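Duplicate of #3305? Posting structure anyway:
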């Protein structure tokens, strides 16, 4: 059996809701000491460049930044041994299209989801949903959240 860690191309991805804003899709490398770069680096730089810093936090962990961005409408992926998606309340057309065009990057056998639903984060992972294909769950949530956005635009 192959070592999965060697085959994973670790990434930090942030897909803004606004089509004019650039997507962050950065491959994580190694620092000067040979240690794996953490997701906090590129996500923190993205937040600083876009004026999205979290008040009161100097160096928040990646999951805190990712949840905060999802709360602000951004779709975030921390690609690692387990790919974790941080989903906002609604998905814009741009975010849905980006995901569908980049399935090869985000698809993984080990997938976890933190989804903002009615103001509360719902977590789906291999422990809370052991018999569920979580990537298929992600795709279903992607469509559901996109349809909710379209219904809001139509006044339904």
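Output from current build:
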């Amino acid at each position: 059996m192959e070592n999965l860690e060697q085959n994973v191309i670790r990434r930090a991805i942030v897909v803004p809701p606004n089509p004019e804003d650039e997507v962050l899709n950065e491959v994580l490398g190694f620092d000067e000491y040979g240690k794996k770069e953490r997701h906090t680096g590129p996500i923190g730089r993205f937040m600083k460049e876009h004026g999205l810093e979290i008040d009161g936090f100097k160096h928040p962990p990646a999951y805190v930044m990712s949840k905060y961005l999802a709360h602000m409408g951004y779709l975030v992926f921390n690609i690692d041994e387990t790919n974790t998606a941080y989903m906002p309340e609604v998905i814009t057309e741009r975010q849905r299209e980006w995901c569908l065009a980049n399935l090869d990057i985000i698809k993984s056998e080990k997938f976890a989801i933190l989804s903002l639903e009615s103001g509360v984060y719902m977590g789906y992972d291999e422990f809370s949903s052991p018999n569920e294909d979580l990537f298929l769950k992600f795709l279903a949530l992607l469509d559901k959240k996109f349809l909710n956005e379209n219904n809001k635009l139509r006044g339904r």
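Confirmed duplicate; merging threads. The two ends are 51 Å apart (CA to CA). DSSP finds six helices and six strands in the chain.
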